[in-house]
């Protein structure tokens, strides 16, 4: 009986700590419109835990062009930013309430985001 309880406890613990995703990185789309890219290290009914987290940031020029001139990129430039360098100094782990998640996608290893993460890790600027 004790062995059965130990095995059942281990099975529940393991089921809650396994991410259940095939690829190294996932995109997590939240109900507030934000998207985070990272490694899902825990995935259960209550929460999802991400580590090695990145997000997209739009950089817009401070000054608008003069009237009659066309902007090179009016939408701004997208950059991939590593979580942790913000003013409030967050750690590189995020616990997300399942109610705040719209959906989660695996990222292919050759996707633009996965390549940008690899470039960032190898010391190149992520863009």
Task: Give structural notes.
- By secondary structure, the protein is α+β, with helices and mostly antiparallel strands.
- It has a single domain (17-62, 73-121), classed as SH3 type barrels (Roll), CATH 2.30.30.
- The protein has two helices and six strands; from the N terminus they run H-E-E-E-E-E-E-H.
- It has helices spanning 2-17, 112-121, and strands at 26-30, 35-43, 47-59, 77-82, 93-97, 101-106.
- Strands 1, 2, 3, 4, 5 and 6 form a six-stranded antiparallel sheet that branches.
- The longest helix has 16 residues, at 2-17.
- The model has no long low-confidence stretch (mean pLDDT 81).
When the domains are counted, the total is 1
List unreliable stretches of 5+ residues.
none
- What is the C-alpha radius of gyration, as a whole number of Å? 19 Å
The biggest beta sheet is recorded as: 6 strands, antiparallel
Structural class: alpha+beta
Q: What is the β-strand count?
A: 6
Using the alpha-carbon principal axes, give the shape: elongated
Q: Write the element-wise H/E pattern from the N-terminal end onward.
A: HEEEEEEH
Note the main attributes of this structure:
alpha+beta; SH3 type barrels; single chain; six-stranded antiparallel β-sheet; 6 strands
């Amino acid at each position: 009986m004790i062995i059965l309880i130990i095995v059942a406890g281990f099975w529940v613990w393991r089921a809650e700590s396994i991410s259940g995703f095939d690829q190294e990185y996932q995109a997590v789309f939240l109900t507030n419109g934000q998207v985070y890219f990272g490694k899902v290290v825990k995935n259960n009914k209550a929460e999802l835990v991400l580590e090695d987290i990145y997000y997209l940031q739009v950089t817009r020029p401070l000054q608008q062009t003069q009237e009659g001139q066309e902007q090179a990129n009016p939408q701004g430039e997208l950059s991939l930013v590593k979580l942790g360098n913000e003013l409030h100094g967050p750690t590189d782990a995020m616990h997300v309430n399942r109610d705040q998640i719209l959906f989660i996608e695996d990222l292919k290893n050759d996707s633009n985001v996965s390549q940008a993460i690899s470039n960032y890790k190898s010391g190149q600027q992520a863009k």
